[in-house]
């Protein structure tokens, strides 16, 4: 049994030969790949071969949704965990209002954690907002 994947190709990126193991509908720009490890090279479509295989795997795993861009990297402030926030709050109680830059330098010096001052400002704003809003 052959695997079949339908791939949309962008303008002016059509394959040069019809012996590559695919059929096409040039009017819509949709090509049907019928060879499981098709010999189509990504260069013909303007992408590298690894990119082509990553896209093929994402499509096989999640369909069209797998081809949509997604957020990468941390989804939350992973450096500012509960212990670090307690440290920051203790400093603020002891020394009064401090700038985020000063707090960032203190974290770097005492805890060896490099945090951008803006991250500290956002974390404190979230904490302040939680205190003000009643639980639902």
Shape: elongated
Supply the number of helical segments: 4
Main beta-sheet strand count, sense and barrel state: 3 strands, antiparallel
Extract low-pLDDT stretches: 1-22
Reading side by side through the largest sheet, how are the strands ordered?
A: 1-3-2
Mean pLDDT: 76
Task: Kindly name the structural category.
Answer: mainly alpha
| Percent of residues in helices | 40-55%
User: How many β strands by DSSP?
Assistant: 3
Integer tally of domains: 2
The portion of residues forming beta strands comes to 5-15%
- CA-CA gap between termini: 55 Å
Rg, alpha carbons: 26 Å
Order of helices and strands: EEEHHHH
Provide an overview of this structure.
It contains 4 helices and 3 strands. It is 41% helix and 9% strand. A 3-stranded antiparallel sheet has the order 1-3-2, with no helix packed on it. It has 136 residues and is mostly helical. It is elongated.
């Amino acid at each position: 049994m052959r695997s079949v994947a339908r791939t949309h190709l962008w303008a002016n990126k059509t394959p040069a030969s019809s012996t590559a193991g695919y059929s096409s509908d040039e009017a819509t720009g949709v090509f049907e790949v019928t060879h499981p490890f098709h010999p189509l090279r990504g260069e013909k479509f303007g992408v590298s071969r690894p990119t082509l295989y990553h896209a093929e795997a994402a499509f096989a795993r999640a369909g069209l949704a797998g081809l949509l861009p997604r957020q990468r990297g941390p989804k939350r402030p992973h450096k500012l965990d509960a212990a670090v926030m307690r440290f920051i709050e203790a400093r603020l109680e002891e020394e009064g209002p401090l700038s985020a830059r000063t707090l960032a330098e203190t974290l770097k010096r005492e805890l060896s954690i490099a945090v951008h001052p803006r991250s500290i400002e956002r974390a404190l704003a979230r904490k302040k907002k939680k205190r003000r809003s009643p639980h639902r």
